[in-house]
Amino acid sequence: MTDSPKLISRVHLVTATPWQQAVDCYFNPDDDVEIHDLRFGFPERWDAGDLFVVVTTDSHTPAIIVVEESETASNATRSDEHTYMGPFDFGLSIASIEARLATTLPAGTATLEQELGERLIQAINAEASDPTPWRELDERGCLAEVADWPGPDSWAPCACCGEHPYDAAEWELHALVDDLEQDFFGTGPLTVCASCHDRLHRPLAPGADDVMFGFRPLCPSCSATRTFQVIWGMPAGPPGPGTDIAGCVITSPFTPEYRCGECDYTWTEDDEAYQPLPSEHTVTGVRARIATAPPGVYRPFSRVTEPGRIIVGEYLPRQVSSSSAWGPGVVHELFGDDGRTYSIDPSTLRSDDPHTWMSQVGGGVSSPTRPQQPATPQSQSTESRMTNRAVTEHDLGAWVFKCNPDIYDLPAEIADGESFVDGWSVADNYRSQMITAGQRAILWMSGTRDGSAPRGIWGIGWTTGGSYETSGLGGGYWKDDDHAARVRHIVPTAIRILDEPDRLRAGDIAAVPDLSDLEVFTVPQGSNPSWISRSQLAALEPLLPPWPAPDDVPLTTVTLGPYGAAFGSPKNNALVEQAAMDAVTQYYETHWQAAVDDVHTFNMGWDLTVTTPAGEEWHVEVKGVSGSLPIVLLTANECRVAEHDDAWELAVVTHTLSDEPEVTIYEADQVLRNSQPQTVRADLRGQDGWSA
Predict the structure, then answer these.
(1) Most confident region among 453-457, 523-527, 574-578 by mean pLDDT
(2) What's the burial of 447, exposed, middle or buried (CB within 10 Å: 0-12/13-18/19+)?
(3) Which residues contact 298 (CB under 8 A, 6 or more apart)?
(4) Across all residues in the chain, what is the average pLDDT?
(5) Burial (CB count within 10 angstroms: exposed 0-12, middle 13-18, buried 19+), residue 274
(6) CA-based, 20 to 30 A from 489: which of 92, 177, 241, 589?
(7) What span, in angstroms and rounded, lies between the C-alpha atoms of 44 and 52?
(8) Is the dihedral of CA 539, 544, 548, 554 positive or negative?
(9) Under DSSP, is residue 623 helix (H, G, I), strand (E, B) or coil?
């Protein structure tokens, strides 16, 4: 930070959204940080030496992250900046800065007058040195909540850290103003300790739910942040969100402390509950703790790579030479279930199956394989034991597939013309193993903090088959590539996206007494899929448009158009077909420098004749789909040509209407081997029949 900044140029306010990604850009040490949607708003003109005050405008409290000095002017071919002040760890509140200035700053991108710009830099310098206590501003109105407060219940812990302050004066009330916080905790206010209350009032503060989960260990299996605390026995009072009640009956020596809300993995932090393993051989099904990096070896420490964190996966020791930064010897690495590779402390190697150790105290296990999760309570299902909501075929009303818009951009896919969801990723658990074709399905949007994608029901329909394995997804509308790559199970569906006026908001659903205890409310961070009971479905259906009939799915809506047969409506198909033709034409022209002739109107059994610079000719049939699954229809003529024409091939374009359509080429034998009859034409002319 510059101690006595002196201005020689102009000061500009630069906006940065979304604020979480802006924070990650400046503060997150991970190499794979997700900042693809980060956008900066710059003024139209600036000169070298001008200062950019970077402000988050969509955070709960607008805040300054950093002040940068431009090294180039706005007309330069590239923009370069260096840090002038900051970055400021928790942001500097705009309200605090305005209080110091005794004036209001512009709300968006702006170029300030010289005098105001100079005063702003001085105010930033003063606020960074001596931050204004949040209680002087109280922008949320928390202090007003205390007036009629009788005080905390004696049994209640802090809603965030879970600790029990011994001094009643440390208890405070935190007002909830964020929709996602209210969905998780209720309308509030929350009873919190003073320390957590200060955390919640930092200018760039996470939500109260994020602070609560920040005190929990990450999942050792998938590295998810939202892990549920397992409570055994009878709690002193009603447990808050983020907890699982395991009951009083312990039928196994293993009593898990945590359950992952994403993948359902259960574990305890107590290493003694797991059997030690030798460090000489490669083994799977291993649990270990991340090692501390040797002196001089850089590693960006984040929660994921924090030394001492437990991870599970495959142990992979390897020899290294003396030229290695780690020195000669063995590097002890573990390939985690989350797809990352970690350096681990070999003295912490243990089997990740606690029951092997519990049932054979003092016994040994050689080369353990990846076990199913512990027989108790997991074999009875975490949900059935811990929330008393076991799903059975008798009780099942509908599966609920949840969409996190921070991971998958469903709103963008809908904006591109998609009206059906043909598959959804799920966890590998007893629920997904229960899924079969013909079960009702609901698409639940988890919601965005800015309200652009409201929480609630966005689609209804059916499952069209059981879950199947995949080796990961990516591209298209995925916003979190790491999460997409970890997808291992998908359920095929036929879910119709509801028109916006027909979508049910979470608040309207929760207002119905019989629906206030839906699992998406009581366990909002539970794994995919969630579910609703038959009685809950009966209460829900009157709020929804008529449920699509089981046979009213996109795979039965076949349109014959100028490009052949396709699923869906004629209007949407025309858009998809033309976009697919354009994408494939560009693909061959760009990647093969080939000449492309459009012959689709001649009914030849292919759409494009492609000629390479070497004179080789390919006959390319083009198919496009709005979604991510390459499922297409072929006409009888196209199949006949594919059987006999050695030059025939199929180009399938997925995410056709998105900004980044993906072109995949398939050979004729691949297509024919994986084809099955969808519809059959019957010509009944000349046949005798009867009619009423």
Answers:
(1) 453-457
(2) buried
(3) none
(4) 78
(5) buried
(6) 241
(7) 13
(8) negative
(9) strand
The CA distance from 644 to 672, in Å, is 11
pLDDT in tens, 608-655: 999 999 999 999 999 987 666 677 778 777 888 999 999 999 999 887
Report CA-CA distances (Å) from 555 to 152, 284, 425, 495, 546.
Answer: 57, 41, 19, 11, 19
Q: What is the pLDDT of residue 493?
A: 86
Within 5-50, residue ranges assigned H as helices are 19-27
pLDDT-derived band at 523, boundaries 50, 70, 90: low
3-state class (DSSP) for residue 91:
coil
Task: Judge contact between 494 and 423, C-beta under 8 A.
Answer: no
Give the dihedral of Cα atoms 293, 298, 301, 305; nearest 10 deg: -60
Report the percent of the chain where pLDDT is more than 70: 77
In contact, 460 and 544? CB cutoff 8 Å: yes
The shares of helix, strand and coil residues in the chain, as percent rounded to the nearest 5, are: 25, 25, 50
Amino acid (1-letter code) at residue 364 = G
Dist CA 161 CA 153 (whole Å): 16
Closest CA to 567 of 579, 556, 583, 551: 556
Alpha carbons within 13 angstroms on the beta-carbon side of residue 265 total: 28
Cα–Cα–Cα angle for 219, 242, 179, rounded to 5 degrees: 110
